[in-house]
Task: inverse folding
């Protein structure tokens, strides 16, 4: 995960590049640049003749002035324009910054995200900030969070250690949503709540009842080394690509079990794609990792006949 110490150390390393570079990282890259990053993985567990286009939105962190509703509306429009089969939201919808002019209520940003449209629907999981921002959930040790309820009120189902079986062109697959792995802060939870995360990978996958391929949504990518070969694809966010990325290296995100899970496509027992996300955490700075909507295409697309 991104820690304050690692991020501040990374920011300090940028000082040698000059004030103009820092200004770019605050005012230009996180605000004015929005890219579509495309992946076409070929998981062993996914049928090659089963095309599926997935649009991925991660780490919105809604707040003024860094991620206002107008920017979220533009993200929704760009995502819909991709015409994906399915849209997945990977958590951290609430602000991850202290220096903001307004915390946008969950009902407002959820209503905007409710404008996302795809034939197989829009599906979501929660992130750590969505849990941390809800003091009642922190005290009691269980959800649903305010963000969870807001998304469902906007017509978007949220999965916490749950699955849904979907079908495209008569071909089934499973979408599994994992509870957040960093849900409960020790300083806020009750002494009777001993767990740190709301995740239960085993119980989630046990709900799959046939051999159709599985796509796993997990806000933090750290679970990846434990994900069994039964899963075809894991989609994650959380890292923001480190927010600072120099020559392909993200100093703010240390390796997990010797594996760099900061950003991009990693192949373990299953294929893992980590989005760089859209918003910022701790500080309103991105450098070398512009905000992105991720488009993942599985399987072969049909050839165009002229």
Result:
């Amino acid at each position: 995960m991104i820690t304050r110490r690692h991020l501040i150390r990374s920011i300090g390393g940028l000082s040698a590049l000059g004030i103009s570079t820092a200004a770019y990282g605050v005012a230009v890259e996180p605000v004015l640049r929005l890219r579509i990053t495309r992946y076409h993985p070929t998981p062993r567990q996914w049928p090659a003749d089963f095309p599926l286009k997935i649009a991925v939105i991660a780490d919105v962190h809604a707040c003024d002035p860094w991620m206002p509703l107008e920017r979220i509306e533009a993200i929704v429009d760009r995502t819909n324009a991709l015409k994906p089969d399915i849209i997945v939201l990977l958590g951290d919808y609430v602000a991850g910054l202290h220096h903001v002019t307004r915390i946008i209520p969950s009902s407002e940003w959820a209503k905007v995200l409710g404008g996302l449209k795809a034939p197989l629907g829009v599906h979501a999981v929660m992130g750590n900030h969505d849990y941390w921002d809800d003091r009642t959930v922190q005290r009691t040790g269980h959800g649903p969070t305010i963000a969870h309820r807001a998304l469902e009120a906007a017509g978007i189902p949220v999965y916490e250690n749950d699955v849904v079986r979907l079908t495209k062109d008569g071909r089934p697959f499973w979408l599994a949503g994992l509870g957040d792995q960093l849900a409960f802060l020790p300083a806020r939870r009750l002494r009777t709540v001993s767990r740190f995360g709301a995740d239960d990978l085993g119980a989630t996958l046990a709900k799959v009842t046939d051999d159709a391929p599985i796509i796993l949504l997990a806000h933090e990518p750290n679970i990846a080394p434990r994900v069994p070969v039964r899963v075809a694809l894991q989609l994650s966010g959380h890292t923001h690509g480190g927010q600072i990325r120099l020559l392909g290296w993200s100093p703010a995100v240390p390796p997990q079990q010797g594996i760099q899970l900061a950003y991009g496509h990693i192949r373990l027992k299953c294929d893992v794609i980590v989005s760089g996300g859209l918003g910022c955490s701790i500080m309103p700075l991105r450098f070398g990792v512009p905000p992105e909507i991720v488009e993942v295409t599985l399987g072969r697309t049909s050839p165009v006949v002229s």
About this structure: The chain has eight helices and 13 strands.
